[in-house]
Amino acid sequence: MRVNQIMRIYIRPPNMNNVHHTIRYNNRFFPYFQGDTTWNVLAACDFDLKFTYMLSGWEGSAHDARVLEHAISEPLNSFPFPPPGKYYLVDSGYANRGFFFGSIPGNKLSHPRS
Predict the structure, then answer these.
(1) Largest CA-CA distance found in the chain, in angstroms, rounded
(2) If 0-12 CB within 10 Å is exposed, 13-18 middle and 19+ buried, where does residue 100 land?
(3) pLDDT cut 90: percent of the chain above it
(4) pLDDT confidence of residue 105
(5) How would you classify the pairing of strands 88-90 and 51-59?
(6) Following DSSP, what letter does each residue of 20-47 receive, concatenated?
(7) What are the backbone angles phi and psi of residue 24, rounded to the nearest 5°?
(8) Are 90 and 60 in contact (CB under 8 A)?
(9) Cα–Cα separations (whole angstroms), residue 69 to 72, 74, 113
(10) How far is CA 36 from CA 26, 43, 61, 112, in A?
(11) What per-residue confidence (pLDDT) applies to 114?
């Protein structure tokens, strides 16, 4: 199943009529809930760029590290941990720990040119 097919089934914008009255009638908050709704999606892919894992459902304002922590700590998420000696390459928003290797902010990962 393709990602865009999965998104149509599982990712849907909320019904804006169900916004809590404290937010809906307060100009300080409600303008941020109008328009497009964003979702934070955690996805992993292999070297053939095929998706091997996807977790969605977190609001767009959730920090990436929080979504990842939920993915690896909740057994029901079936996160695919890499084998010993292998790592996931992640961006600088994630901590270097265990099986995650993040880049250093401001530095670009590079490889020797042939």
Answers:
(1) 61
(2) middle
(3) 2
(4) 62
(5) unpaired
(6) -HHHHT-TTTGGGGSS---EEEEEEE-T
(7) -60, -40
(8) no
(9) 5, 8, 36
(10) 19, 21, 13, 42
(11) 47
